[in-house]
Amino acid sequence: MEGMLLQQLIIAWWKQKASPKLQEVYRAIPTIILWTIWKRRNVIKHGSNIRYEEMVNQVVGVVRQLIKAKYPWIERIEWSWPDISSRMGIYKPKLHYLSVIWKPPVIMRIKCNTDGANRGNSGLSSFGYCLRDSRGDLLFAKSRGIGIATNMEPECLAILNALITCKERKLQDVLIETDSLSLKKTIQWKWKVPWELVERIRKSETSCF
Fold first, then answer.
1. Residue limits of the RNase H type-1 domain (predicted)?
2. Consecutive 10-residue runs of the chain (209 residues): their mean pLDDT?
3. Which stretch of DSSP H or E encloses residue 202?
4. CA nearest neighbour of 208 among 177, 165, 161, 167
5. Phi first, then psi: what are they for 13, rounded to 5°?
6. At a CB cut-off of 8 Å and minimum separation 6, what does 135 contact?
7. 110-206 in CATH: which number?
8. Best exposed site among 12, 63, 67, 108 by fewest CB in 10 Å?
9. Residue 87 to residue 110: CA distance in whole angstroms
10. DSSP class of 82
C-alpha cells in the first residue's frame, strides 16, 4: 500500500474482502486513525507531544471498544490486530431459538390473532388481525395503518377492531390471542393503564358483550 494516496488507501480498506463482522471493523479503522492523528495534531499545537506507539495503542483501544459494543458476546480475545483479524474472521455466533406453534381452537370456537407494528416509539404504526376456525381456515382478516403512534396503541386498536368485527358478525365464542404481554396485563387491569389507552380498553371491554 506504499505510495498510495489517502483516498485510494481508504477505498482499499473499504473493499477489503472479509467476513461481514470483520468488514465493519475494517471500514471504521480509517476514521479511527484520522481521528487519532487529529488529536495528535491538537496535542502538538498546545505544546505537548505524543509518540507513535501511543497513537497505535489509542487506535487499538478504540477498535477494542467498537468490538465490545457491537459484539459483546465475543470473549477471550487477545487485543493484538492479528488476533482481532483472525477471531473476527472465523467467529460464528451460537444460535438460540424458541419454537412458536399456532394451536387451533377447539371445535365451535373462533381464534383471533392480533398484532401491532411500529417504526420506533412513537413512529409510523399499523395493526392487523385475523379470525380462524378449529380447522385453521381463515374466516376474516384486516390490516390498517394508523400513522404516528406509541408501541401499545396499534396493539390495542388491533384487539378493539377485532372485537368490533366479531360483534358485527355475531361471533360469540372467540378467543383473542396477542403477543403483547404488557397489553394483556393492562386489559386485565393487573398493570397500570396508560391514560391515552383508557377509553380504548374500556371500549374493548364493552365490545365483548
1. 106-209
2. 75 78 82 88 84 85 84 70 73 78 92 90 90 95 90 86 90 89 75 63 59
3. helix 198-206
4. 167
5. -65, -40
6. 104
7. 3.30.420.10
8. 108
9. 52
10. H
Residues present in the chain in total: 209
Please check whether residue 125 is in contact with residue 147, taking contact to mean a CB–CB distance below 8 angstroms. yes
pTM: 0.51
Secondary-structure breakdown of the chain: helix, strand, coil percentages, each rounded to the nearest 5: 45, 15, 35
Quickly list DSSP for 113-162. Answer: EEEEEESSSSEEEEEEEEEE-TT--EEEEEEEEEEEE-SSHHHHHHHHHH
pLDDT computed for residue 142 by the predictor: 94
Per-residue model confidence (pLDDT) at position 201: 61
Cα gap 83→87, rounded to integer Å:
6
Distances (CA, A) of 73 to 22, 27, 60, 63, 98: 15, 21, 19, 16, 19
- ∠ CA 183-186-188, nearest 5°, is 110
CB 118, CB 125: distance < 8 Å: yes
What distances in angstroms separate CA 151 from CA 132, 141, 157, 168, one per listed residue? Answer: 25, 21, 11, 27
